[in-house]
Write a structure and sequence with these properties.
Blueprint: E1 7-18, E2 21-33, E3 38-42, H1 49-56, E4 65-73, E5 76-77, H2 83-92, E6 94-97, H3 101-104, H4 111-123, H5 127-140, H6 146-149, H7 159-171, E7 177-181, H8 189-206, E8 209-214, H9 217-223, E9 226-231, E10 234-240, H10 241-246, H11 251-256, H12 298-302, E11 308-310, E12 313-315
Parallel strand pairs: 3-8, 3-9, 6-7, 7-8
Antiparallel strand pairs: 1-2, 1-4, 4-5, 9-10, 10-12, 11-12
The protein binds iron/sulfur cluster (SF4).
Length: 331
């Protein structure tokens, strides 16, 4: 993408201090998202994808902390903002959607009250205009009889309908970026595709960029423009979604593709990769993936590969370094 980035994450490092030392959960992660672009972030549980999202929206749970790098939104640093200023950025410029809709909704208030509060706070509209906009948003997210449903409480909605309300809430202030963390994982399989399609359509209509965090490569394949594959707190590969899926440049990505549902609907989980991702306190030296990699070489056990050009993508793998891996076959 040539447009100036909307979001830039530079050398992000997230640490968790523990009694037995400091755990590095995100290690030197850099990427950007252009205006209106959908970036998928995929990886196994514990790879650091949700933590990256939480760091961007300023909701890292203590003792987790940003220990290095910077995060810029429209060229302005947001990782060092005071809590109150970050709260404003979160409502106005960045919308957030979590796995459980009840994380975002207050059970004690009608959904109308919550939408109207967000709209009046961030857009400065009067009460009647804000209510009209809230109804419009609910209609746009496919809530039937929005004029009546606006006065209902979150528990009066099904899980899928609640997530539609959360999407309306996330988009209420016309944010430039939505960070969606596993937005459909808690929902019925039959509803998941509808919600993803809705999120994709509304964000494209509004020119809203999306960072879509999911373990589900199938979801990424549906909606993302680019995808970042994370492993053990780092980006293993990042590139245009079709290229990463059809011509993976990192052995981990190649294995991960086994988790895309086949045409028959069966899902193999990481079929080609033995072993498990290392725990944070046991990340191996060199390439963190080397104990599981069938193509590991001596250099992989000793030195950590940085992201380098690999086709149309970037991949952190020594196979793409001719000097380090002269004998390696082309990927
Ligand atoms: Fe495998 Fe080595 Fe590439 Fe790591 S750097 S993915 S161990 S070939």
């Amino acid at each position: 993408m040539n447009a100036a980035p909307l979001l830039e994450v530079r050398n992000l490092r997230v640490e968790f201090p523990t009694r037995r030392g400091t755990l590095v959960a995100i290690d030197d992660v850099s990427f950007s998202i252009a205006p209106g672009e959908v970036l998928g972030v995929v990886g196994e549980s514990g790879a650091g994808k949700s933590l990256t999202g939480a760091a961007i929206i300023g909701l890292l749970e203590p003792p987790g902390r940003i220990a290095g790098g910077e995060i810029l939104l429209s060229g302005r640093r947001i990782d060092d903002l005071p809590a109150e200023a970050m709260r404003k950025v979160r409502g106005r410029e960045i919308g957030a959607i979590f796995q459980d809709p009840l994380t975002s909704l207050n059970p004690l208030y009608t959904i109308g009250r919550q939408l109207v509060e967000t709209i009046t706070l961030h857009l400065g509209l009067g009460a009647a205009q804000a209510r009209a906009r809230a109804i419009e948003l609910l209609q746009a997210t496919g809530i039937p009889a929005a004029e009546a449903r606006i006065d209902h409480y979150p528990h009066q909605f099904s899980g899928g309908m609640r997530q539609r309300v959360v999407i309306a809430l996330a988009l209420a202030a016309n944010p430039k970026l939505v960070v969606a963390d596993e937005p459909t994982t808690a929902l019925d399989v039959s509803i998941q595709a509808q919600i993803i399609a809705l999120l994709d359509r509304l964000c494209r209509e509004h020119g809203t960029a999306v960072m879509l965090v999911t373990h589900d490569m199938g979801v990424i394949a549906e909606v993302a423009d680019r995808v970042a594959v994370m492993y053990a707190g780092r980006i293993a590969e990042i590139g245009p979604v079709a290229d990463v899926i059809h011509r993976p440049q990192h052995p981990y990505t190649a294995g991960l593709m086994g988790s895309i549902p086949s045409i028959s609907g069966e899902r193999e989980r990481l079929a080609q990769i033995d072993g498990a991702m290392p725990r944070l306190d046991a990340i191996p030296r060199g390439c963190a993936f080397h104990p599981r990699c069938r193509r590991a070489m001596t250099v992989c056990r000793e030195r950590r590969p940085e992201l380098r050009e690999a086709g149309t993508s970037l991949a952190a793998c020594w196979l793409h370094d001719r000097a380090a891996a002269p004998a390696a076959e082309a990927f």
